[in-house]
Amino acid sequence: MHFSGLRVIREALTGHKGWKPLWRNPEPQPAYDYIIVGGGGHGLATAYYLAKAFGRARIAVLEKSWLGSGNVGRNTTIIRSNYLLPGNEPFYEFSMKLWEGLEQEFNFNAMVSQRGILNLCHTDAQRDAYRRRGNAMLLAGADAELLDREGVRAMAPFLNFDNARFPIKGGLLQRRAGTARHDGVAWGYARGADMQGVDLIQNCEVTGLRIKAGRVCGVETTRGPIAAGKVGVAVAGASSRVMAMAGMRLPIESHVLQAFVTEGLKPTIPGVITFGAGHFYVSQSDKGGLVFGGDIDGYNSYAQRGNLPVIEDVTEGGMALMPMIGRARLLRVWGGAIDMSMDGSPIIDRTPVEGLYLNAGWCYGGFKATPASGYAFAHLLATGRPHETAAAYRLDRFARGHVIDEKGVGAQPNLH
Amino acid sequence: MTRLAGGLIDRARNLNFTFDGRTYAGHPGDTLASALMANGVRLVGRSFKYHRPRGVFSAGSEEPNALVELRSGARKEPNTRATMAELYDGLEAASQNHVGPLGFDLLAVNDLFSPFFAAGFYYKTFMWPRAFWEKLYEPAIRRAAGLGSLSMQPDPDTYDKRFLHCDLLVIGGGAAGLSAALTAARAGARVILADEDFCLGGRLLAESHLLDDAPATEWVARVQAELAALPNVRILPRTTVFGAFDHGVYGAVERVADHLPQPGAQVRQTLWRITARGAVLAAGAIERHIPFQNNDRPGIMLAGAMRAYANRWAASPARRVAIFTNNDDGHRTALDLAAKGVEIAAVIDPREGVRTQGDYPVIAGLVENAKGRLGLTAIKVAARGGSQWIDCDALGVSGGWNPNVHLSSHHRGRPVWDAALQAFLPAKDGPPGLVCAGAVAGQGGTAAALRSGADAAVVALADLGITAHAPDLPRAEDAAQNLHPLWHVPGKGRAWVDFQNDVTVKDITLAHQENMRPVEHLKRWTTLGMATDQGKTANVTALAVMSELTGKPIPETGTTIFRPPYSGVSLSVLGGGDTGPHFRPRRLTPTHEWARAQGAVFVEAGPWMRAQYFPRPGETTWRETVDREVLATRKGVGICDVTTLGKVDVQGPDAGEFLDRIYANAMKSLRVGMVRYGLMLREDGTAWDDGTCARLGDAHYVVTTTTANAGPVYRHMEFCRQCLWPELDVQLISTTDAWAQIAVAGPNARRLLERIVDGFDLSNGAFPFMACAELTVCGGLRARLFRISFSGELAYEIAVPARYGQALAERLMEQGADLGATPYGTEALGVMRIEKGHAAGNELNGQTTAQMLGLGRMVSTRKDAIGAVMSRREGLAAERRVLVGLQPVDAADPVVAGAHLFAEGAPQDTSSDQGWISSACFSPHVGSAIGLGFLMDGAARMGEVVVGANPLQGQTVRLRVVPAHFIDPEGERLRD
Amino acid sequence: MLIPHPLLGLRDAQEFTYLGDAALLNRPDGMAEGAEAAFAEYVYLRDNPAGLHRELWFHEQGDRSWLVVTRDTTTHQILGAELARDVKLKGGAA
């Protein structure tokens, strides 16, 4: 079924009787060519591109809970391609280009909104680093602008310019960045994949990987064994648990990242703004809630909930940066388990087990990567070769010394 | 006016307030909602999506409809529940989320087009043309969405964060909570009793039945008085416990001054972090409604709330009301209102064989529609004999009660369906130490709640080894509800489930039809439960409707869990005053006041404030000042506070061995009385921090670190000492704050120092470059002297106990007046270190290696040190970019840090990128801008011209590659 | 969270700085044969268990002890804490 304004009008006039399920609820088949473990954003996007862009068939996505219940269902919805390092920037810019045509591509309004991201700087050294990064972005074909203090003031006059512990000196602006409706992205890919014949199987937890002679041949699930030619794992937050079934240890720790939303407010904040002197980033959803976040709690956790000190710390950052939000109320806090990798960058690679592929380690930043991650992982699964923009995301880069450490803090996940 | 007799309001005093500009009067004890009701105001707000007219729906924090903008100016507080706003004299409130007057909201046009706005419609449209989303569709949606608006001004009030510890935290001060608190208090436990309301009593205040043959308020008052008199009890009214965190930590907000016109000298709110050894959750229950067509008309409300308004606030939404109930509780409302003189048009009750319990008519049937756009005028009742319209101006609805289990699922435990009660009860795996009592635990009758509270306290305290006994509890009612499940009234029209977000039974049906059936999909597709009330009156009903559609029982359809906060918490109080200039502590150097007296401009350096430069009269730009400071230092002598550099004292017989393992280069071999430059790597082999290591004695070293890494390096050294090599006999202490350290640099440095040392030989032979010593200065002041140089000049750093820092700076200036002593700041420091080619934070950015810094040979291969092994990995060894100096070919050209480097003629893109400029400045010594940068194969490219590209600012500059020493490349000055 | 410091009793976790898996106590010998592979594993690979986790916390705002805390990563329940120094002297983290 094709979605359009005309269709909405027609259905409205005929009592909405014609709307079909967004996807089927298929029973698992005994065997597939490709099994994607994880029905979050990356898993669904992988299945979508595997079918649509690479023409593969007999694909299943196995999700232990409901579709989109991964971190795609709980994040601060920011999309951007403002990275420094050559291992990252082309990949995220590829992702940004996919975002720009995504809704027309999968015929679903994911509310991709290019309202811009403004990263503020508060010291000269920070500005130098932003200049280097902005130039790297331009050199990779992305967009970037360096704003001085007055340029920032013109964009966001409500920021704390006059009474701040760390004065705003300027900012790095990427106008093409912005936000997207996180659930819409998951559902758009899910519906698109389903339309391509992909079996999306919910409430189907993978409990084992069947490996024979160093080659994967299927999975054990709560709904029985399923044979597979290739298995792609995209379960950020739980990557170590799943890959342990293949006897692998990963350069990853699971941490909890909290995110926050306020009660709905009339338009307050134009785009995405990040604080440079404390960890705080914020945007406003179309419904009016201020959506914000900050540091991870900082200890290993699978509990999907965080603690009060970080709630206070993040809010302090917000209040320090934009004191006019004080009378808004925090409506909800949620915590997600995320894969914090050892260099802050992801992994999209084959594994020592033949036919078993891994997509993991997305740290804070998996949402913006969803289209490119899905595309690159599908490319790897379909062709056996890494996509050109994801070639640096190798599993062996740690042992070989090719880490992609944007923050320069080394092998300590809670600092990335 | 619909004010009734009785109630817990102080009629002796009038409080005037305004709503939408009109003035009304209420009394102490009123909430804004009860006062509006007593004044006959039924229309108070508009819904989120369809802008439907709405009235007060509840009497508590679950309120979905009656949201107002409270106060004005910078104190404006959007989305405030009128049911929670305690009335004060002069209160100002305004309705929100409408265009035009509240009674004639232009956006109510949305309601006419509601068929087009069905669940999830926006995912299916607005996709064409692409550019229209940001330009047209989204701005329109955003303007229409949102609820209240912010003032956009900083909050003028103050806030506090405080900490409390207790044995038992009792959450909720109703029957169960009071009885729990009393039980624990009498056992001598340290008790905190918190309630979100401004008076204790909970539902006891809303009911008319007696405790021990007296009004319940008498018992409440007695218990409150006893508790208040006990030293081991703290009562926190107006306090919402909003979150249950790990290990017995609860977050709570006390609204200290929200009931006053202005906080005055008090804080407005306090954020309490309560560490409780045990807790009793006695938060009561929230009534649920029964969706039917147009069930959102102003005047339709929860029956229990209607009763609360009548009994506690002496207010009724109308003179003639009807009740729609599927349980006996609804009849109580009829009885109580009738007793207060309100006319009961009918009680509509679908249960078989239902009868009146008093003097009011009962109709066995269903309410299936309602009339009255801006206020209810009639309901349509379907009964066995057919349908009829019954006139009434208000309708109380009771569909049973949902236990208020929220906090019990903050650790992600799932509430459990109880078929007998037709309700979700608290999860078994709730927060450790939290015991549920009263209506939360399904013990909703008054007698049961009282008992259950006492029992819960006994159980919770037993876990702590405290023996408690249930007190004598008053006799109370314990009527059964006799509920017959009725989740909604079937029909064609729109029947609201979630009022604020306009989610109807039809939307849930559509979600089912489109396979958005898992409860999380249902919520997200329809926005159910996402409004400011977090679905407190909607979620369970929605689940039941979905369960009906799927044909699966409710527990199989799903459960919802709750996340903090229980109800909205202002960002101001979470920030707690650590905002503005107080966002982070401010560390001042020992010479701060001296620098200020010298006219210094200060700059933030991490937590520190450092003197950036010292402008003098007549200087018009900072550059002019910095150039002068640099030249004065290079020509005479400059003085700069470098206290912020980290200092770690390392002592013990194994100190040398320890440092050998910490530093990439050797330290054990350092002679006593000498200093060595030291490079620390991270264990992953990347360059981390540099500084000096001075050996003051056989078993005594002093390590310095960069300012930024003072804390992390010390932490790391303690890690190495305690976790890796505890067998080494070595002790560490951070002395960063203990010693004031001042750099004295320039050709006159020795002459200046000679004037303050106490008979210490500073000659080159006796105290050469890289020497160190403990000595006294200024006539007996103990000091440490290091002959080290960051500027490239003959230079020393002298350390004295911190409290003498200022005096030392003054003395140096005084003694050096004829030598040209000049204070310099971090800017001049930066210029001189770039001229000398020293790495700083921009080069040691955590992404560079010793090899890139030109220090590769420092990493000893003859010993094991942190990071040494990993620094030899292929990827690091293959890194070809190295530190070079860069000078513009045209001296007038700028050099800008952050520019990227390219070979001349090469395309400017990522694949041709050969490096970057890390630091740049104007060098008064060279007479042009200069830079340091990392360039591919840089060491072999001296003299070559490369391109510095800064497309971000439209700059392309030709740069000559030069050695990274713009001054005194042979190092003669510092050895002089 | 509250951490049961073996010397100081229950302390708020905010006083501490977290590092990670206590396996970091078991640093390989940098001069040994095959050190690079051993270090790659030591520096980068983690068990990252869902369940009991022995982990390092530094009492930075306190007595500057490094502790080995045993904590369940699925519930955050803490089962105990020891001085890391003692753990190391007893042979390191198992």
Task: Please tell me about this protein's structure.
The complex is a heterotrimer of chains A (416), B (976) and C (94). Chain A is an alpha/beta fold and 416 residues long. Chain A has 2 domains: 18-77 and 182-251 and 343-415, FAD/NAD(P)-binding domain (3-Layer(bba) Sandwich); 112-178 and 253-341, D-Amino Acid Oxidase, Chain A, domain 2 (2-Layer Sandwich), CATH 3.30.9. In chain A, 28% of the residues lie in helices and 25% in strands. In chain A, the strands form 3 sheets. In chain A, strands 1, 2, 8, 9, 10, 11, 17 and 18 form an 8-stranded mixed beta sheet that branches. Chain A has an 8-stranded mixed beta sheet with strand order 5-6-4-13-14-15-12-16. In chain A, α2 runs parallel beside α6 (182-195), α2 (41-52) packs across α9 and α3 (89-106) packs across α9 (366-383). Chain A starts with a helix and ends in a 16-residue tail after the last helix. Chain B has 976 residues and is of the alpha+beta class. Chain B is built from 22 helices and 51 strands. In chain B, strands 8, 9, 12, 13, 14, 15 and 28 form a 7-stranded mixed beta sheet that branches. In chain B, strands 42-43-44-41-35-45 form a 6-stranded mixed beta sheet. In chain B, strands 46-49-48-47-50-51 form a 6-stranded antiparallel barrel. In chain B, β37 and β38 form a beta hairpin. The longest helix of chain B has 18 residues, at 446-463. Chain B is elongated and about 115 Å long. The mean pLDDT of chain B is 97. By secondary structure, chain C is α+β, with helices and mostly antiparallel strands. Chain C has one domain (2-27, 34-89): Folate-binding fold. In chain C, 17% of the residues lie in helices and 35% in strands. Chain C has helices at 35-44, 84-89, and strands at 2-5, 9-12, 17-21, 52-58, 66-72, 78-83. In chain C, strands 3-4-5-6 form a 4-stranded antiparallel beta sheet. In chain C, strands 1-2 form a two-stranded antiparallel ribbon. Chain C is globular and about 45 Å long. The model of chain C has no long low-confidence stretch (mean pLDDT 97). Chains in contact: A-B, A-C, B-C. At the A-B interface, α1, α3, α4, α6 and α8 of A face β6, α3, α9, α10 and β31 of B. β16 (329-341) of chain A pairs antiparallel with β31 of chain B, so a sheet runs across the interface. Chain A: One of its GO terms (cellular component) is cytoplasm. Chain A: This is N-methylglutamate dehydrogenase subunit A. Chain A: Pfam families: DAO. Chain A: One of its GO terms (biological process) is tetrahydrofolate metabolic process. Chain A: Residues 33-380 form the FAD dependent oxidoreductase domain. Chain C: This is Sarcosine oxidase subunit delta.
